[in-house]
Amino acid sequence: DTAVSQTPKYLVTQMGNDKSIKCEQNLGHDTMYWYKQDSKKFLKIMFSYNNKELIINETVPNRFSPKSPDKAHLNLHINSLELGDSAVYFCASNQGGENSPLHFGNGTRLTVT
Amino acid sequence: DQQVKQNSPSLSVQEGRISILNCDYTNSMFDYFLWYKKYPAEGPTFLISISSIKDKNEDGRFTVFLNKSAKHLSLHIVPSQPGDSAVYFCAARGNYGGSQGNLIFGKGTKLSVKP
Using CB atoms, which residue from B36, B99, B105 is nearest to A55? Predict the structure, then answer.
């Protein structure tokens, strides 16, 4: 009955590969996000989707692309992986409206070798 | 250019005592502040929030204080319990019409509550 679930939990891959991280939420929220926690522990927003429409893109490389097949899913595709992409990626969601807090998944630790 | 700063990477407190976690911010446009708690291998969990029109918000053992003139907020946990041991993130949201979920996070403070 996990509210926001993402898979896989760990992902180890080589430079140049293409990989995807999946995210699903069963909270009925209408907005989903991807955050990245880098080696310096900063959590930074990458994307958000509301009703299948991208409403934030914080200048991440275009090798990263979010894909939302429906309101409950927001997957993250990464092409041509680089060493610097190694990080923990968190999916999150919230309900539209004033001051709705984010609900986070447990994160996917991506290691690029 | 960190807009949200948590200058103490760690804090150790005895069980039953008060824990005070501090956070400073630089952007006066921030209008909403949140605290998240994170256990290892889990995602951050929302704890408490405060709007910029208030200076205090309380929820059980947790109280957040906001000093807008000093651009400073703090989280008080009283009494502290061993289960409170976690990393605490301060976050802020701008009022520039962006998404509600576009938060700026600090680096976190690791709280250890000793029995």
Answer: B99
pLDDT tens digits, B59-112: 999 999 999 999 999 999 999 999 999 999 999 986 544 556 788 999 999 999
Kindly report, residue by residue over B36-58, the tens digit of the pLDDT: 999 999 999 999 999 999 999 99
Shortest Cα distance, chain B CAs vs residue A102, angstroms: 6
- Taking the Cβ of residue B99 and every Cβ of chain A, the question of whether any pair is shorter than 8 Å is answered with yes
- Put simply, the answer to whether B100 touches A42 (Cβ < 8 Å) is no
Q: Which of A33, A98, A107 sits opposite B101 (nearest CB)?
A: A33
Please say whether the beta carbons of B95 and B31 come within 8 A.
Answer: yes
How many Å separate Cα A53 from the centre of its chain?
15
DSSP B82: G
Give the DSSP H or E segment for A45: strand A43-50
Can you name the residues that pair with B56 across neighbouring β-strands?
Answer: B65
Q: How far is CA A101 from CA A29, A95, B9, B33, B34, in A?
A: 11, 8, 24, 10, 8
